[in-house]
Write a structure and sequence with these properties.
Mean pLDDT: 84
Shape: globular
Order of helices and strands: HHHHHHHHHHHHHHHHHHHH
Helix content: over 70%
Number of strands: 0
Distance between the termini: 22 Å
CATH topology: Growth Hormone, Chain: A
Low-confidence stretches: none
Structural class: mainly alpha
CATH superfamily: MFS general substrate transporter like domains
Oligomer: single chain
Strand content: under 5%
Length: about 525
Amino acid sequence: MQESTHKLSLREKIGYSMGDAAANFVWRSGFFIPVFYTDTFGLAAAHATILILLVRLSDGITDIMMGSIADRTNTKQGKFRPWILWSTPVLAVFLALIFTTPDFSYTGKLIYAFVIYFCLTLAYTANNVPYGALMGVMTDSVKERASLSSFRFIGAFSGGLLVMSTLPFLVDKLGNGSEAVGYQRTMWIFAVLLVIFLLITYKTTKERITPPVQVNKSFGEEMKDLFCNLPVILIPVFGISIFIISLAMEGWSATVKIAAAMFMLGCFAFTVFLRNRLINRPIETLTNAQKDLADLLTNKPWLILLAVGIMFGLFTVVRPSAASYYFKYYLNRPDLIGYYFAITLIASLAAAVATGWLSSRFNKRTLMIAAFSLGAIFNGAIYFVSPQDVTAMMVLATIGEFFAGMMPVLFFSMLGDTVDYSEWKNGRRATGLIYSAGTFINKTGHGFAGAMVLIVLTLYGYQAGVQEAITGSLDGMVLLMSGIPALIGVLGTLFVLWYPLNDKTMKNIESDLINRRLQNPQ
């Protein structure tokens, strides 16, 4: 059996990991966006919910576009590395601007928040989609890619640890009594660090795998094809978003909310119809973009990972996004939020290190099942902890976060496996499209998680600054920290049970692909 012998250097692995450390300056600070919008910026929870969902829906277009554009980019520096360089300064600026509170009217603030949030996610997409796809072309070794994934998330959790443990402290110290000023000054510091880290990634990495040659149309024709076929992926996300928005709007009647639920189901049915129509067409009648999409929609492991990605996105974001409310109002210990994030992120970092070791000895599918199921148990146990027993809560949360920390390492490594599976099955390797679509689904799960926090608080009557409303919403804060993550963990476990790619299958695929490349060098 032919196996890759290529080894990535420690320098390159560390350099690559710096990119996700930088990405987490954006990603982890996003956990503070719900509480920033409601308690500092001054938006109503329902409006913040709609804003987050609309921007995340736009991610569907920009993520898939970026993946396709990156796949068709050809420079001396590669397909993906140039985008990391070009997008870095823009991303840094919008990271600072999103936590800036302008002296506008309420409507002006709402418009500002939407525009800046949208621009931030657009810059993040232009940076992070190529960054994720870069891992798929740095090496052809499944083992090295698993190791690289582990390094990546060591970087991710290290960057997250820096943000989550210091952001509350810096906001307090640099704000001199003003949270708005504190947030703004703090995020400029992180923006500078982001630029430094991403430049290191660009300088230390190299693209080595050349995807199979495809005959491309012009860029305009490819984008036209892409937009004609994007609805297959976007329609179900749009349906879910409409349903979630209906839940957030307290003034909408039960009839309207039922209609929104029916609309969501109709979106799923229409998506199945569009998928079947596409994949049943003769392959010679399909454009390159349609072939890429057909490959995606017939890639069973990737389709299952979509559901897994949404679940792990929800699982890893709901509790951190709710934590600021939980510590501030339920525990009455806002001073502990920085320590909480530091401890749980150290657990995530330990998980990233351990997962690299564990994945070389155990099946990744088995590890993901263990991560979801055990994470659900320890998160669910938080429900039974009293507000006086902070230590018990911290212990349970830390153990639960360890298992949550395994999920992204395993997910993106498994996503790389689905790229190999697609090339093995179809003879085509749309690395950027597969990674971008997978990243979009994961980001959608994160967006739904942020919206879920605000919806639950809205349903429980939360209003910033109104003590009676805050008291009435305490049960919702507890559920967001315990019962809801536990339910998500159970659903995630069920989806992973259907995932078909085990270690034996991937070794066979790796061997076949290496033999093909040796027989047909490009």
